[in-house]
Amino acid sequence: MASDSDYLLAQSTANTYDPELGDCGSGPAKLAVLQVSVAWPFDWSFINLAALFFSFLPFLFPLVVLGVVLCVLQDWFVGVHCLVLIVISGVVSEFVMKPFCQQPRPPESANRHSDGTPTHGMPSGHVLCCTTLAVWLSLEAIRGLPIFEVAMVMTVTTLLLFFVAWSRWHLRDHYAGQIAVSLCVGTLIGAIVFGIDCLCF
């Protein structure tokens, strides 16, 4: 008959086991870089490179806002709003929802605690941030731009959002359900901020 210690050991092993790596010892490995799982040996396939590109893309948004929107276009309304939305979505994701939901990432994710268990993955901060920006930008475009430019903004933001969401699922850093919740929450935040803009500006 199995003892309590045997049960705890089996449970711990199940929580820290990565089915993509298995019991590989010093063989293949994974590294979490800015919450993005990168496998080693590196996979140079197009689909993996695309997934990594779109997973790292959200980290470029603040630089794009500062460098292009604020410095080049000098559009302070859009620039400041984008930076504020990035901060809001980050706080909601990392300091509110993840500690509250405490839902782990998939076992294939390299994002793990010191004891080897997956870190919290509800929601996806990448997807939540991108959704918030995409919704707010699209609504602002509808409010103030010609129809052709509205179509361009919505097409670009929708495509970027789709590929960012896909990349987080493809790299197994989030479950599909976690991504779906991120889309819903990001949509809500973007719509609320747009509503505030309509009342105040």
TrEMBL record:
State the Pfam families in the record.
Answer: PAP2
What UniProt keywords are attached to this protein's entry? Membrane, Transmembrane, Transmembrane helix
Looking up SUPFAM superfamilies in the UniProt record yields: Acid phosphatase/Vanadium-dependent haloperoxidase
Supply the source organism for this entry.
Answer: Noctiluca scintillans (Sea sparkle)
Q: Where is the Phosphatidic acid phosphatase type 2/haloperoxidase domain?
A: 82-194
Q: What is the lineage of its organism?
A: Eukaryota, Sar, Alveolata, Dinophyceae, Noctilucales
Which chain regions cross the lipid bilayer?
46-70, 76-97, 147-169, 175-196
**Protein name as annotated:** Phosphatidic acid phosphatase type 2/haloperoxidase domain-containing protein
